[in-house]
Queue: 2 jobs
Job 1
Amino acid sequence: MSEYDVIVVGAGFSGAVLAERFAKIHDKKVLVLEQRSHVAGNCYDYKTEHGVTVHHYGPHLFHTNNEEVWQYLSQFTKWTPYEHKVLGSIDGNLVPIPFNLNTLDALYPKEQAQQIEALLIEQYGVDGKVPILELRKSSHVLLQQLGELVYQKFFVNYTSKQWGCSPEEISPAVTARVPVVISRDDRYFHDKYQAIPSEGYTQLITNILNHSNISVHLDTDATKLVALNMNDQRLFFNGQAFNGKLVFTGMLDELFDYLDGELPYRSLQFDFETLAQAQYQAATTVNYPNEHAYTRITEFKHILNQPTTHSTIVKEYPQDYDRFDPAKNVPYYPIFNQANQERFEQYKQRVQAFENVITAGRLADYKYYNMDDAVGNALKIFNRFTEQGAA
Ligand code: FAD
Ligand code: UDP
């Protein structure tokens, strides 16, 4: 092991960016361990035999306002511009999501829609955004009624499927990701940069990891190799003391063998279908808040505008995470509530006792990071580390 200075666990965005930074900027020899048979973490994509780029762990649409992240990633990929649009199946019609002034027009008689539009603009301003839980509490009776309608038709059943609970029982930040928008902008995201890596996320992350100082070992569960001695805060790798750094982007409860109990996650089952038809639906994603056991259907060929004769779609069925069940053992979404946060903090304190361990990513930070958050956070961690002269 003396040949490596840094061991990185996980080859998703977080692990790849930190591996690249240590290899390039600090000239460290880096070993990346990934338990899956591929790099790119949950952003892994591949092309089907019919030429459709499919996202294996659900649709991934890149968007960011973070200039540093955009510039950093642009070293490793060309981009294909793409602005995500989502339709919702509501009372048998397909209407734009997030709920905006066009959705209002589709669901209300003309005069009433105009009256509500004027009120929304007065209250929240042109181009304003308001989380559904806030709109529902509006003191204005018409806006409160609108909030109730949007809550009932768009949020309550979708959230119940996605999280197994009501919108009030999860962090308000979750439903605030999809606010009511006071404009006629039908885009799902409003960030400055919105684009897809032209050769896919797998190629982008392969490019990030493509450095002579980096070795990647796939199909390797690091928790079987890495040990943290809690008596003397020493690190061990493969039974031997390891004096380098460990960058860990997996689950903290797993790292500590569930000492303080399990950190709960929500999982998903993806049901892929390849159809002998050029197109299945009008938009990349159609949400089904009130029908079916799945939450949404995504048709991938729209993303890179691929002119294929066959089309691949995926239906997302939310489910509880269960580490012992191979059909449910991918931890997609941390579940935020106070008890879980407190448990996470216990693990965080344990890991902070180890000077040579850096944690990063959606799993290790137990946060609902988008891709740009994961990259931005990894860059921030590395920069802080460098500034502290801890190289
Ligand atoms: P991950 O991608 O989860 O990577 C962690 C890696 O560590 C994994 O490959 C895992 O196998 C590996 N690992 C864990 N434990 C071990 C171990 N013990 N040994 C070895 N390897 C280990 N973000 C967006 O910006 N836009 C979107 O449209 C979007 N859509 C999403 C849709 C879904 C369904 C989901 C679940 C997420 C979506 N995201 C989206 C979020 C995005 O997936 C994450 O921000 C990103 O993957 C975080 O990267 P990461 O490296 O932190 O984690
Ligand atoms: N949501 C909803 N109805 C929708 C879309 C979203 O209730 O039509 C809620 C739901 O709780 C979801 C959250 O808003 O988990 C965030 O949605 P987003 O599309 O950001 O979820 P992700 O793509 O991360 O799964």
Job 2
Amino acid sequence: MDIYLLGYMGSGKTTIGQLLAKQIGYDFVDYDQFISQKENASISDVFTAKGEIYFRKKEALYLKELLKETKTKKIVSLGGGTPCYGNNMQDIKDSNVISVYLNVPVTELTRRLWDEKSQRPLIANQESKEALEEFVRKHLFERSFYYNQASKVIKVNGQNESQIVEEIIATL
Ligand code: S3P
């Protein structure tokens, strides 16, 4: 069964997804890249040129397409917001896939995101680390409702990347 990784921006979906795919011999799909290719533009450019609502519509549309694609075995790292809009989480649950939520504490997410915020349109304008942390805390609180509907939840708290990969494999 395909495995879909869910979690907030900076939770390690891409890094863990790539390692996991390599370890179990599945293909790897980064969902942001998938959308970028379809739209022929970076995610930041899509947000700037067409706006967030356009992005969310396309995100939902291409997700249905990807969930139906079962020819190859794959690990998919979703965008941080993907499970939280429209009917997306229900679509994931109705499909024959395993969903795994990488649950990372707010302070750790903030630490990781502070240095990379420019590539992420939703947080690019946060002016201090404290403001970013406050934003992430509220945003994650709202989104947790969706993330926690995943079939597996991995609590990330100090484990290294290969330990997290092993934890995921152990639940399969
Ligand atoms: C978003 C997360 C991003 C990307 C877009 C919106 C979000 O993906 O899809 O910028 O709403 O959390 P990552 O979680 O891979 O950064």
